[in-house]
């Protein structure tokens, strides 16, 4: 979705200092910046916090309320959409239950291969330095908090850059901006209201629709997860830095049509999902690239399969992965 020319020009000027800082700040040690990334990754999972944040991508703006707590080593999170159709997501570790009151539907599934704000960073950060140059920058103010700014510059054309703002006191991520190949902002998350620490009651974490949901339609998604070392699918040739971290076959109970293979490739920060399903017999699979906000999507046929590759990466990345995908042993 394109912005007005005036807005694009203003944003272009605004982001020029982001990557200029990389060259000017060469004396800072990357190890210190990586330690900050570890603080960010840990804080999002270990702290209690409540707040409201805004997501922006092109002309799309979404506002959400989040409540996050750790109780006996279990992460519990409630995420409520404040714009558009009402929706609530209750997460306990990787178990998700989503309530859609407009369609009177409850959906239960496991969260796999995906992260959400403010927990955008993986727990293991070892490979990030291979693919990004990470540097500290200035301290700014976000939602009333002092924030340490961190810059992640991609080392090649297969991933986007990032600018992160972390609370100087706790390390919690307050704001995150993804930056494209032409230094344009692609998407942004930012807290507008936030309280860190303190007790959070069970009532704050309950879904308001849970009592109504007894008469709703229930959807439960199941999957059979395969080890990354088992026979399956792989990338042949060079897909720089992206390794297969998950392969599973998914089926939705009560829905015909066979299983869907879902594979996740990651460089430690950016992730690309590949969905492989049987193609419709005697029907040619349409091939091509589309974009939805920050996500590039590439479709292609592969033998008797229809392949969909999507990720918050440059178009070159999803095309490369789609065109080098092959079954092991084939």
Defining key terms:
330 residues; 4 helices; 18-stranded mixed beta sheet; globular; two-stranded antiparallel sheet; alpha+beta; 15% helix
How would the blueprint of this fold be written?
Layout (H helix, E strand, L loop, with lengths): L4 H20 L5 H17 L2 E9 L2 E12 L2 E8 L6 E5 L2 E6 L4 E6 L17 H4 E11 L2 E10 L6 E7 L5 E7 L5 E12 L20 E10 L6 E3 L7 E10 L7 E7 L4 E8 L9 E5 L2 E8 L2 E7 L3 H10 E3 L3
| Beta strands, count | 20
Number of helices: 4
Question: What is the ordering of alpha helices and beta strands?
Answer: HHEEEEEEHEEEEEEEEEEEEEHE
Category from helices, strands and their pairing = alpha+beta
Determine the mean pLDDT. 83
The description of the largest β-sheet is: 18 strands, mixed
Strand content: over 45%
Give the distance, in angstroms, between the N- and C-terminal Cα atoms: 40 Å
From the alpha carbons, calculate the radius of gyration and give it in angstroms.
21 Å
Helix content range:
10-25%
Unreliable stretches: 1-28, 226-230
**Shape descriptor:** globular
């Amino acid at each position: 979705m394109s912005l007005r020319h005036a807005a694009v020009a203003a944003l272009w000027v605004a982001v020029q200092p982001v990557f200029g800082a990389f060259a000017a700040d060469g004396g800072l040690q990357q190890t210190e910046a990586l330690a900050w990334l570890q603080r960010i990754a840990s804080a999002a999972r270990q702290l209690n916090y409540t707040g409201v944040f805004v997501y922006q991508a092109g002309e799309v703006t979404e506002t959400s309320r989040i409540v996050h707590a750790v109780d006996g080593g279990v992460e519990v999170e409630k995420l409520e959409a404040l714009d558009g159709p009402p929706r609530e997501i209750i997460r306990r570790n990787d178990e998700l239950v989503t309530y859609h009151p407009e369609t009177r539907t409850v959906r239960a599934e496991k969260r796999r291969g995906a992260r959400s704000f403010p927990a955008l960073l993986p727990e293991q950060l070892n490979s990030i330095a291979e693919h990004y140059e990470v540097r500290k920058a200035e301290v700014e103010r976000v939602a009333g908090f002092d924030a340490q700014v961190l810059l992640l510059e991609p080392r090649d054309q297969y991933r986007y850059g990032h600018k992160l703002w972390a609370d100087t006191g706790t390390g919690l991520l307050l704001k995150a901006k993804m930056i494209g190949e032409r230094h344009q902002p692609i998407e942004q998350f930012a807290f507008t209201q936030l309280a860190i620490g303190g007790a959070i009651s069970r009532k704050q974490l309950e879904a308001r629709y849970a009592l109504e949901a007894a008469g709703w339609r229930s959807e439960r998604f199941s999957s059979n997860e395969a080890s990354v070392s088992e026979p399956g699918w792989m990338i042949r040739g060079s897909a720089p830095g992206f390794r297969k971290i998950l392969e599973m076959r998914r089926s939705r109970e009560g829905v015909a049509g066979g299983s869907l293979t879902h594979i996740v490739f990651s460089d430690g920060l950016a992730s690309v999902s590949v969905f492989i399903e049987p193609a419709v017999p005697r029907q040619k699979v349409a091939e091509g690239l589309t974009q939805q906000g920050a996500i590039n999507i590439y479709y292609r046929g592969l033998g008797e399969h229809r392949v969909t590759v999507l990720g918050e990466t440059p178009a070159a990345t999803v095309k490369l992965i789609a065109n080098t995908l092959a079954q092991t042993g084939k």
